[in-house]
Write the structure tokens for this entry.
Amino acid sequence: MTHDIQIVGGGLAGSEAAWQLAEAGLRVRVSEMRGGGDMTPAHETDRLAEMVCSNSFRSDDAENNAVGLLHQEMRRLNSLVMRAADKHRVPAGSALAVDRDGFAQEVTQAIGHHPNITVVRERVDTLPEGPAIIATGPLTGSKLAEAIAAETGSDALAFFDAIAPIVHRDSIDMSVCWMAARWDKGGKDYINCPLTKEQYEAFVAALNAGEKTEFKEWEKDTPYFEGCMPIEVMAERGVETLRYGPLKGVGLDDPRTGRWPHAVVQLRQDNALGTLWNMVGFQTKLKHGEQVRIFRTIPGLENAEFARLGGIHRNSFIRSPELLDSELRLKSRPNIRFAGQITGCEGYVESAAIGLLAALFAAAELGGRSIPAPPPESAMGALLGHITGGAEAETFQPMNVNFGLMPPIPGRTRKAERKKMYTDRARERFGEWLSAMVPSARPALVHEVDVA
């Protein structure tokens, strides 16, 4: 099948972009190197939209949380990624977590069976000549990365991203641990492993002393992304750092004492069967043997069996505010758009959202039309604004969607009400944006669904 546009990369952003374009009636070629003889340092399968780190899309609260609002906006735009996530949801309190295998399989089948999409297992080493969206993510192949750098005249920035371990549920001692969510919000969805003050301080000391992965010389100055910091790097910042971060015991009543533990390690369900559990916040660069030794000192995990140990890989992204225009086109080669984590957005849902927007812009352009960008008061508009001009190129860093990216609420407001005011305003502006799209173009570009 000849194609109207090529998508390079079959992750969440590339899959979402392909789906949106195909639904708009365009013929799409998806080029994915996994399955064609190549693999990345982080992926384990050749499935499209494989989740390589956490299995969580984070909060699904669209009333008080920016990422929950982003979920809702994407659902209104008939997002494939959100549809698959909702279908393969697993318990996670107020968060949206998924069975990662079922999720990836759902997306792979939807893309593979769409009559307007051809998936080709091939590695792309040069920038395409025709209309294209580059969605190769933070693990872009070296030759394509070199081609991007040669075209832009600007070296890619980079940071390290770490993967948390996954534990077999039947190896956890539930006589020590208990099921609960913080403040009982959303149900008893997390396994909680309590630590006394002495146990906690010994654990922090073990993290600091544990043998870590050695980096190559050229990697040593690469910064970590604050939202995915290795646990031992946090421990190096001070003995209390973890207790006020991922090991925070606040809001978790130990049923044996009726009190909050000094610190707590939480595990979140990772698959639909409930047999695999992810250690929340335990991204790590510890060597594998050290992980087993140190993590088995956690109460309840003394006999833990690990389905996957943690790891670390180098993520790359471009200077998007300098290189991309307001519709995600490469300024020097406007036939090419960029989408996903390579643009400097951080997080699964953020990556998919930028893939969705890149597809809407591309579909309109290929149809001889144009559409306005979503308003900056919306989650999608705020994220797009950060990528395409909301930050200085020299200091640009990956960012999750957050209320700080949106224009401030005017006037004085009560802090307790502010988040709801942001989401109410965003929902109104986003609805206006949907209604204001060119009427003749809107049916082919946007398939708004009822999320009430």
In short: Residues 5-156+318-445 form a domain with the FAD/NAD(P)-binding domain fold (CATH 3.50.50.60). Residues 195 and 333 are 55 Å apart (CA to CA). The chain has a mean pLDDT of 90. The longest strand covers residues 157-163.
